[in-house]
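Section 4.2 – Deliverable D4.2 (structural model, holo form)

The reporting period included a commitment to supply a predicted holo structure for the target in complex with magnesium ion. Inputs used:
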Amino acid sequence: MALKVEKKDKNKNILIFEYQVLSSLKGLEHVPNVYDFVNNSEQNLIVMDLLGINLAKARRCLEQRYSLKIVIQILIEMLTSIREVHDRGFIHRDVKASNFVLCRDSRRIFIVDFGLAKRHLDQVTKQPLPRRRKADFRGTVSFASLNAHNNIDLSRRDDIWSFYFTMLDFLNEKLEWREQRDYTIT
Ligand SMILES: Nc1ncnc2c1ncn2[C@@H]1O[C@H](COP(=O)(O)OP(=O)(O)O)[C@@H](O)[C@H]1O
Ligand SMILES: [Mg+2]
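Output (structure tokens):
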């Protein structure tokens, strides 16, 4: 089992939200199964399946020693996982290598970290939700779409833009705007 833990904070508790998103994504092949949300006086915790290392770390381990064929297999798995999430009515909004993890006993790749996820389809009618007129920046600067930088409400295509920038980075193409640290702005 894997535990994701956050310290309780009066203003910002996102794990309960992440647990609700993971619960809505239950049964998807490329999303870890979630079991429980637990809290005590100091912490909130999510209990989910334990998976392997993330793709940013895997890439550092391999350095340049991976073939184009493997990169393409990885990218197809990433796209498949994004599509599953989209088809269930959510956008991820923080697509980057460290939010994808390897499976410990198969070639499958899982998408994790739904702290910034958002519904793009109405839960009941399954119709697209109306776009908000303005949205604060959320996500990771190096991999964010132009829309995100322009404070436009994000949609599925923006996950695909972030996937595209992650892919270029994986293929060692230089992203001129690449920052050293891939921290998420929440
Ligand atoms: N279910 C899991 N099994 C194994 N490792 C995981 C799992 N979920 C997350 N991780 C690892 O923990 C890291 C941080 O988790 P993440 O959900 O991305 O948290 P944060 O919101 O801090 O970015 C990921 O980059 C990944 O390496
Ligand atoms: Mg993360």
